[in-house]
Amino acid sequence: MGVTGGTGEAVKTDIPARLDRLPWSRWHWLVIIALGVTWILDGLEVTLVGSIAGALTDKSTLGLTTSQATAAGSFYLAGAVCGALFFGYLTDRFGRRKLFMITLGIYLIFTVATALSWGFWSFMIFRFLAGILEVDDLPTQHIVADSEFLVECIECLNRTFAKDPRNLFRCFR
Known about the structure:
Layout: H1 15-20, H2 26-51, H3 53-56, H4 66-94, H5 96-115, H6 120-134, H7 137-146, H8 149-152, H9 159-172
Helix pairs in contact: 2-7, 2-9, 4-5, 4-6, 5-6
C-alpha cells in the first residue's frame, strides 16, 4: 500500500502552505544553538586529539611513538564505523531520542576515560569506544543543523535569516 492508499491518485495537501505560515520562535533558536554547540564541540574534539599527538609522544605523558599517537584517529574512525552500523539498527528499533541521551552519557564517560588513560592500549580502546558512541549524535546534528529541516519549519520571509545562525556554527567547526 503506497502513499496514495493504493488508488494511484495524487494526494493533495496544504502542508507546504502551513509550513510557510509558521513564525520563527524560541524553539528554533534553542534547537539551532544546541545543535550548533554540539557540532562545534564534536569538531573541537577531533581537532584536539590531532593537536595533542605531539604531547602524547612526550615521556612525561603517555610516551607514545609517533605512529601510535597518530593511530588514535584510526581507532576513533573504526569505532565510528562500527557504531554507525550497530546504533543505526538500535536507533531504528528504539527511537533516536531515547538512544541519543543514553549514548551521549556513555560517550562522555569514555571521553573522560580517554583523558585518564595510562598507556597506549587504554588510550586506543577508550578512543574506539568514544568513536562508537559519538556516531549516534551525528545523524541528529546533520538532519537538523545541516539540512533544510528548520528552515522549512518557518515562514518563507524568515528563511534566509534562519540559515545565518546555522551557517555561523559551520564557521567554527
